[in-house]
């Protein structure tokens, strides 16, 4: 853990590019943000409110240069403590709420501060919605939905963020910005991070050549599985860019910051019904599901 002196110096460095009001050291506010929907509590040394991609890039670079650990927080609805920190907690200002609907609702690009239910509200006139349906969709935010592959009880594995991801903009730990929906950004990234992409490609080849391991990963991710990294990206894709962007889904902010995400939307039927059906046995009920 960095020393108090390191944190003091870190705060001084932040003032070069962050307004004072965005650097929060007030003990009451830090205490208020010291928990999420889990039963864990870690009190951050300071809380940063970031207003733009440029500020986020500078912040991530400064954290790396200063050796300061940091954690991203969206709405804080997570149940496992992944939105808390005893170091630096990075949150977003209200500026991160832009969206764009494409192809008559077939796709939607969302910034991470948009609440999931609000995204569906934007899509409702098109008869569409985003695939993930986390239980907290009325309060959780898109950044947290994607970073945790949050999907609730309804969308299974067919319509979660991993399966409906079209592209995303991610800021990596070294401050590099990659937009996987932009050809020039991809070309630049292949040039600057060719070694990383080669290593990802090699890892994918190794996994695919190991039949036992490959089959294990495929079998695990046929089931509902939001624990750990999306290792099925190594078996599902060949292009390391595709692998990299799908590894971001469910990585809980440990691999990069998702600055926006474009989803392929799913149909939202105008009429819905539910029913209670009684079966003589569990076997009959399971066959009915099939």
Descriptive report:
The chain is an alpha+beta fold and 290 residues long. It is built from 12 helices and 11 strands. The chain has helices spanning 4-14, 27-32, 53-66, 116-123, 142-148, 161-164, 183-192, 194-209, 211-222, 233-236, 240-248, 282-289; strands at 23-24, 46-50, 70-72, 88-92, 99-102, 107-110, 128-129, 165-171, 177-179, 257-264, 266-267. A hairpin with a 5-residue loop joins β8 (165-171) and β9. α1 runs antiparallel to α3 (53-66) and α8 (194-209) crosses α11 (240-248). The model has no long low-confidence stretch (mean pLDDT 96).
Question: What tags apply to this protein structure?
Answer:
11 strands; five-stranded antiparallel β-sheet; four-stranded mixed β-sheet; alpha+beta; 290 residues; 38% helix
Structure in a nutshell:
The protein is built from twelve helices and eleven strands. The protein has 290 residues and is an alpha+beta fold.
Tell me the distance between the termini. Answer: 52 Å
Which band does the percent of strand residues land in?
A: 15-25%
- Structure annotation, total helices: 12
Q: How do the SSEs run, as a string of H and E? A: HEHEHEEEEHEHHEEHHHHHEEH
Radius of gyration: 21 Å
Major pleated sheet: 5 strands, antiparallel
Could you report the average pLDDT, rounded to the nearest whole number?
96
Which residues form runs of ≥5 with pLDDT under 50? none
Q: Name the shape in a single word.
A: globular
The number of E-state strands comes to 11
In helices, the fraction of residues equals 25-40%
Structural class: alpha+beta
Strand order of the largest sheet: 5-6-10-8-9
